[in-house]
Amino acid sequence: MAKRKLIGCVALLLLCFLVAGCWDRRELQDRNFVLAVAIDMADDGLKLGIDPKEALKVREEETFVQPDGRKRYRLSLQLLKFSSGEAGKDEAKTYAISNTGESFFEMVRDMLGQSSKSLWFEHLQVIIISEAVLRQTGLAEIVDFFKRDSEMRSRIKVYVTPGTARSLIEYQPPSKEAGGMFLADLIRLHSRNNHIAGARTDLGYTVQYLDLRSNVLLPRIEIADKVVKLGGSAVFKKDKFIGYVDGYAIAGLKFMYGTEESAIVATECPDHPGHQMAFELFRDDTKLIPHVEGDTIYFTVDINMYGNLGEIQGDISQDDTLDPQYIHRLEIAFAEEIKQNVLYADRVFRKEMQVDTISRFAGKLKAYEPETWAKVQDQWDEIYPMIPIIISVNVTIQKVGSHK
Amino acid sequence: MMANLEAKSYMTPWQLAIVVFVTCVGAQILLSPRSLIADAEHGAGISVVIGGVLFYSATCLMLVLAKKYPDETIVEYAPRIFGKIGGTLVVIWFNMLFFLQVIQIFYGMGKIITFYMFDRTPPEVVILALLAVCAYCAVQDWGTIMRIQQFMFFVAYSILILVWLTSILNLQPENLLPLWPVNIKAVVGGGLSTWNMYAGYECVLLLMPLVYRQVSLGSLIKIMGASFGCLIVLFLLVIVIIIGVLTVDGAKNLLYPALIVIRSVELPGTFIERLENYLLIAWIPVVFDTLAAMMFFMGEICMRHWRQADHRPWVLFLVPIIYVGSILLDNQQVYEMANKFTMWLGLAFSFIAVPLSLSLSWWQKRKAGTGCG
């Protein structure tokens, strides 16, 4: 009996070696936190129009021997500095390392040759892809590594830049935040800035749309003379980059899809031409509805907006904002402006680019008219630009602020 | 000598309902949704309801059968119904259902935990550790296991459901459309394939002797209906949220869509991130109690079949076999093949073996009655 107990105890002790969890031990001080990733063409420096000082060229000391393929991409990682430096010194919180190659995973592993600690992607905030890369490669190929790895989060922000992506992760924000956090936070308030396409543009949704073979929108980011600006959007047909749209088109699209939570609509005062007034949206009720009559498909967009009169420029003594007639005239002017904005977005996306962004129209037809969708789904790309869209906008001003 | 207080000679019908619920809900809530959604698409929710009704009916048949043989389990009365060889085959079949489920659950759990939590640890080690814990629980008497199941029912499940419900934040009701028309054939097929989710209800054939004195068959059937009602609601919650967040086509492309759903949740204004880890932490005890119960049932079946007094040596004997079995499922294709095989084996047991047993037992009793008269 005693012998059996002893054997049992020894077996339990031996089991402790296997199951104590030390296998996955990675101490905090042994990790290098990757905050941002930049993806450029490896030889961007060879392109015309790029400052030679900022040119990206394949440097032997940065890269590795690659028997197959070519040095196609440059992957740059922004790492968090753990040491705070000397007191009072204006030191950057992050630094960047890069590598060139074709497989992102291989580049990451080879970068361990430049890093004293393992590279840790759990806190990755943002992935920035340069337009040059997307002109040559589909978005699906670029994000594949990030969607597979278990360290990546779904809510990582993905941006596209017309310049070099590396210059953005080398940017040190004047607020002294870590660069990756700053870049990711730029989009955080997208619901209050209708010039930014921020809803459903992160890694999780991008992968989801690519899986569904939907058209993707990603925010555009640019840096010039130490000014970083997020605005407008890069447009993809399936995973192929086809161009950019401006912030005004994005605003129109958000009005059409009802994805804005707050927005400012500025237009000219109907009573005082040349003077601006602004409407602040608080709440909206937008309905994008497909209709099928025989062989005809059309959509109606009913936009009802409720909000505040936020600004009236000009001589306010001539206007009485408590006068319902005056307010009604303003409501009509704002509604007209919103309608023009939606029509502009419709022209840009549907007529010019012929892109059903995030397959919103196709999704509505599939959800509400599945039998019609089954008939037209194979020709949807051709049918979509021809479909009539009827837009109606109604604006209600509920408050005029604290001044008459 | 002190009496073994954990050796249970009775349990209440509500305890049986909890045991059925807890045994049925295991690893498959994370492992099964992909294949079900791929088959039944937008009708996956309807498949879950069809499956629930179907397997509830099977459970009722089992209860009727078990009630005919009070104080006996299927291990004792199967040889009387089917003869010695036939009965042994039915008992092996019955035990194989638990064995095949257990090895698949160990395999799936090892995969998920090593991918999402311990990426450097080999799955074999995770399986070994969990096997040791489950075996420790399974060598206890039924009273202990039942108390653990009751505890888990109130604690682990409430946490699991609470964490899971946070994914409603990302739900897009439009992704659930169209609700109709659905591919009827695929939805019915999906209903059958939900066996993997509901499997475990077969335990009533072993536990009925502990319950039958407490309640009439009619009440037991009603109480079991409550258990299946809860199962249907839970599985619907899983399937509907997966489709609502990822869409049907999105879910098809993911190995474990439920984990991707919860991974996408961002709780605004909180420091809580990577909710899949919280879900997994609540899921591990849920799987543990299913595995421990199933291992106990396997040991109990062997014990009763060989007419022994103690199930513990059998549990310990089965441990290496379960381990090797789960290691042999070395890739997703083999796993899916084993999954399909187990499903058909389980469906055949519920809808062929049990009704056949019931018919034969009626026939035999009628024959015996005629003989007497």
TrEMBL record, chain A:
Keywords of this entry: Germination, Lipoprotein, Membrane, Palmitate, Signal
Question: How does the protein's chain sit in the membrane according to the entry?
Answer: Lipid-anchor
Positions of the Spore germination GerAC-like C-terminal domain: 232-401
Q: Could you state one GO biological process linked to this protein? A: spore germination
The keyword Glycoprotein is assigned to this record: no
Where is this protein primarily located? membrane
Which InterPro entries is this protein grouped with? Answer: GerAC_N, Spore_GerAC-like, Spore_GerAC-like_C, Spore_GerAC_C_sf
Domain (Spore germination protein N-terminal): give its ranges: 24-222
GO CC, any one term = membrane
**Where is the protein situated, by its record's location annotation?**
Membrane
Sorted alphabetically, which PROSITE patterns does this protein's record hold?
Answer: PROKAR_LIPOPROTEIN
Q: What PANTHER family is this protein classified in?
A: SPORE GERMINATION PROTEIN B3
**Family classification:** Belongs to the GerABKC lipoprotein family.
UniProt-recorded name of the protein = Germination protein, Ger(X)C family
**Species annotation:** Pelosinus propionicus DSM 13327
TrEMBL record, chain B:
- The protein's superkingdom reads Bacteria
Q: One GO CC term of this entry? A: membrane
Instruction: Please give the Gene3D superfamilies that the UniProt record associates with this protein.
Output: Amino acid/polyamine transporter I
Localization per record = Membrane
Identify its membrane topology class. Answer: Multi-pass membrane protein
Which InterPro entries did the record assign?
A: Spore_GerAB
| Main subcellular location of this protein, as a coarse class | membrane
Keyword Transport listed: yes
Q: Which UniProt keywords apply?
A: Germination, Membrane, Transmembrane, Transmembrane helix, Transport
Does Signal show up as a keyword for this record?
no
Q: Which positions, given as ranges, span the membrane?
A: 12-31, 43-66, 87-109, 121-139, 151-172, 192-212, 224-246, 278-299, 311-329, 341-363
Q: Which GO terms describe its biological process?
A: spore germination
An example of a Pfam family matching this protein is Spore_permease
**Family membership:** Belongs to the amino acid-polyamine-organocation (APC) superfamily. Spore germination protein (SGP) (TC 2.A.3.9) family.
Cross-referenced PANTHER family: SPORE GERMINATION PROTEIN A2
What is the protein's name according to its record? Spore germination protein
